[in-house]
Amino acid sequence: MPVFHRICTVLLLSLPVFPLSAAPAKAAQARPAAEAAPPLTPVLAGEFSLQAGKLPDAARWYLQAAQEARGDVGLAERATRIAMLAGDDERATQALALWAQRDPGAIAVRATRASLAMRKGDVETARKELLVVLRSPEPNAWRNALLALATGGRDPAVPAQVLGMLIDANAIPEDLEAWQEFGRLALRMERPELAQRMVGEVVRRFPEEPRVVLLHATQLNQAGKKEEALALLKDIEPKAAADVELRNALAIAYDALGEPKAAEQVLAQGDQDLHSWGMRASLMAKQKDDAALLALYEDISAKASKPDPEQRLLLGKIAEYLKRYQEAVDWYHGVPGGDQRGEAQLRAVNALHLMGEKAQAFKEVHEVQGDASVDDDVRRDAYLLESDLQQRDGDSAAEVDVLTRGLSAYPDDSALLYARALAWERKDDVPRAEADLRKILVAEPESVAALNALGYTLADRTHRYQEALELIERARVAEPDNSAIIDSYGWVLYRLGRNEEALVQLRRAWSLTKDPEVAAHVGEVLWVTGQKEEARRFFDEARKLDPDNRALLRAIEKLGV
Could you tell me the residue ranges of all domains in the chain? Predict the structure, then answer.
């Protein structure tokens, strides 16, 4: 799981569960055999297995339920998806056959059959099924094909090969959004030749569309042709001047190419508002261009005669970044009300702490905690902030004490419990971290964040790998495409010694999110499997993103990289 983020740091410092129902006895007796009620025992057993994180058992029970419930399309579909999530291709094939028999014309059946075929390396079957999907008259049927390609295949080369075959067959519909999405998918596959070909097709088909130029620039940059990419972006700047949406997209593209100054200059065109000011301030901060940021600050300040809460909040943030802490506090204290008032109060505390006025900072944060007129979320966040300040001061005992005090005011609050669990984990007190995460799960059994955090902690800090796997599996059922959960799943597979399977999952997590912890995990598995040159590349990627990442530092120390 990517590195735990402090809730208050993010807040303050950043610029179909199957329905079970019992029908009346008479109605059940009168129902035709083809519409029989779902068999209760295997469905219940399947749900209990899911809740316990035992996906292989859940796949077995749900297949039995689907086989016994003749004519039930939803149950056959659920059995198929659970078996695929469990990696049980045999049961997935059986369940899919039932689903197809009961709903033979469904596009989702075709797409799922293609996904299963790609997992087996059967590119021809996948191609045939996706051709049918893409040529369907149903609106947006292409999204089913896109999902199958994005999630299908244990070997990343297989969906890439199938996508190439679909381009050969001219199968992607003549729809700009479809071509853009398939183009982005090709870029994520990290297959330069395929990406070049795919983007070339998009450009050929939609030569006058500026948003296609942004996609082309991304592909050129990936291919090491940054200057060509920048030239393309420069060409569409005139079109962006009168189009706010395009201007924002162009700025994001420049920033992605490592050109924050060009991004800021694009945003400076046209009428300015709080949104453009905020984006420009962030880009100037990224460049560490304090002179330009000061000029922007003074320009906005001159327009701040009215007590606009959003404007004063933004000015406080800029002043805080410029280390003009007293001015920041004044702006924050001057926020008159509205939704911004609570954030301003907490930011004022943070600015006071940064300027060394720690006694006043703690006094104000305690006032927020004790003010019954303040929104409960803000009061709760005041405890999170105070714990963060104690962590920054190096007082881990006080950090835990603050969170415990917060839990006295807000018993069993999941955010406070989660934060305290992370504090215990940093202190290497895994049993207490586990206890707090389990308290969250008592109140919120399906809390994906707690399931994933506990599963990852057990996988990373203990030898209870099977238990960790079951917790992560529960999170996977809820959010199968969540990159943090995919990373946790890959990590526990590695800890179980299933290195090849782990590498597939970790690479997929990396394709979804460029996170330093994910990069460190991929690097470690590559290293232990003898692929040291590629491992070094991933360690370098992690260093660029966060040289102090805990997972990276532990991997480097452990492996002697």
Answer: 271-338
